[in-house]
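Researcher: Sequence of Phosphoenolpyruvate carboxylase follows. Predict its structure.
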Amino acid sequence: MSHDLHESLRDNVRILGDSLGRTIADDLGQSFVNKIEAIRAHAKQGRQGDSLHQRELIDYLRKLPEQDLLPVTRAFNQFLNLANIAEQHYRARFRRVEDYKPGSQPVLGELLARAEKAGNSPRSLVETLANMRVELVLTAHPTEVIRRTLIQKYDAIDDCLTAIEGSDDYPERGTRAQGRLEELISQAWHTDEIRHERPTPVDEAKWGFAVIENSLWQAVPDFHRDLDNLLLETAGERLPLDAAPIRYASWMGGDRDGNPNVTAKVTREVLLLGRWMAADLYLRDLEQLKTELSMWKANSALRADVGEVAEPYRELLKRLLVRVEATRDWAKAQLDGERIDPGPIIETRDQLYAPLLTCYRSLCDVGLDTIANGALLDTLRRVAVFGVTLTKLDLRQEGSRHAQVMEELTATLGLGHYGDWNETQRQEFLLAELASQRPLIPRRWECSAETREVLDTFRVIAQEHQEALGTYIISMAAQPSDVLAVALLMKEVGGQVKLPIAPLFETLNDLDHAAEVIDQLLALPGYRALTDERQEVMIGYSDSAKDAGQLAAAWAQYRAQESLVNVCEKHGVDLTLFHGRGGTVGRGGGPAHAAILSQPPGSVNGSLRVTEQGEMIRFKFGQPDIALRSMEIYACAVLEATLLPPPEPEPHWREEMNRLAEVAHAAYVGVVREDQDFVPYFRAVTPEGVLGRLPLGSRPTKRRQDGGVETLRAIPWIFAWTQIRLMLPAWLGSGEAFSRRLEEPGGREVLREMRTQWPFFGTYLDMLEMLLAKADVAIAAYYEYRLVDEPSLKALGQKLRDRFGRLEEVVLEILQQEELLENTPLIRQAIDVRNPYIDPLHGLQAELLQRNRDADGAISADLSRALMVTMAGIAAGLRNTG
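Model: Prediction complete. Tokens:
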């Protein structure tokens, strides 16, 4: 089987590569294709340890005429995107090899059998799944480098591969599909792969909604149908009709932290877009149901609703269609700034759900269960998951913005200066105002534009139904007053809507004090009444790793979760942890199944929120088959963590982690914060200085436009190191920690014990191993050779590469392996296949960066575009950007 799988992947890579070669030959001639092949051959032989060919590759690239640089970068970028399509297609076709490690991710049926064997009754399995609340939060962080127009073409190419594979008995179909494939690849080649303008937050939201329309709209009912079939086999019953174990939320158009482009007006527009698009999608469902539900047998409840008509189901669906169509027209008019009277519209989930449920119950009551559990059940499942807004929109704002509102307000009212008060004074003021019956904010208050914008956001909240909105997240939260300030603004301006408020703890210090803050908060008189006995807390992965280094941050996140679980249990409050993970290892990324099972026991108790960011949305949810598998992975992992939780870590493992984290943190800080050459080296050797030109997302690359590395967002910080293949943020400090422990008595034994017996530590090492395999210090050294002049900076670069080499040695020693990825050969193969196409892009990028610096940033438009394409191509080849 494995041989066949590998052959399938290789065949599709070859089919796509050959087609691209023909397209380029038609456009630029066979001689240009020969140049591409020569570059690839040098790169491939250079990868086999042939230093002569490495030098020949660099010499060849540097001698290319200027007019060839852009098409060469485009050719390699395009091939890497086609290789990703082949791999994505392969993963969708053979779902069981999702993470390329046999047996590491069980399918749901196997897990249900294991849970039952462990003593869980079939009924408890149904209840656990019915009550499960996994919310996947789609975010538009600037990591998706591929334009939407190209993504659509790539999806169509995937369809062609499916048609070609299924055409053995119908060769003419294969011929047609091959022709369409050639056409699509030609379209992609002749399409500009780099956006000329940054997407707006509304553009980002449209992209998120398109993922739902093109993929999740089909995958969600398929997932529930598969789940129902499993439960019918094991427990003899379906999932309850209104159950939605996996739901979707979004930050697109709601995340205003550090993004001045997300305003109250934008948030309102995105909410209306969701309403419009949901109505449009449901109209298609309802039209199909109206066509199909032509039967006349009905129960008395349906008859009482529609009267004695010949086709009662169609009658009810006609009425519902009128309301849904009116809803779509109303939302469109609102978006266009027009005022219309559409008549009664659908405003809540139940208004759509109840009539469909009436039809379902009627069909079941008259013995037409097979029809009830067909397309009608699929639509009921969609309503349960997507509601009437497609996603719940989260809102995020930095804590200091709320404090600024309070400062202006207290100063205006002559109450003092909120900014000067200590934490106790702030809490006393906020609690008193939360309990007060009178309004606090003057009706015609002349406040600053910044404060007005914050208040306008809460006014948008007031205008919405609660089910349209998710959680209000406070970034850079550090004290109970940060949460109380938002609660007060919601009371004063947010109308009847009371959203969950989640403080986001993201620096090392904030993580260490997170439980203390929540403990103080839950102990405050009056606060619990606002929470409905629930508390959500967001754990930041990106900024904590940037602040402390990956190893220290990972252990701080684990300890914070443990402490938060204990605090909420003490107060009798239900805790939901919200994991702010990114796509890369340096930002908490990695296979979802392993990540969830490596969390502290009790922290995943049927409830989980997690961000899905940028290009990872496309990789996990961009196609129905892949989305189906992704949902199954999440359901499996959360069910397993709930019913079969991992063991408590042994006390001596905790001691080991405390020591490892301390050494790793000191080593990381010693370089990033304390070495005066580090920031100049970072800016000299990486493309950080030109990242701002790559129009990836709506958010600026920096929180502030002045300052050093500390002002950079975590995404561009990691993007820059990934581009030169040093991947520094995800490993710096780990080598010193592991090396020191291996040198001490018993170190090797205890690290291997933790590796095999503790999921948290084992998963950390797996992620580190994968990252080391993707990194390449020889490529990083070439960037340095080309771009760095100062001897002191070169010396620092050599020290960093030496540290990397030592880390690779100690990781292999702990894993008891001769080489990286011995046990995951398909990941190794995926990296090896891509390297001959990524290597030329690295060489070209270094060359273009140097030319750009020599010209003080004034290189030609074609060379500037070529530089952008190298970034997009390297990101595509490594399959993560930030």
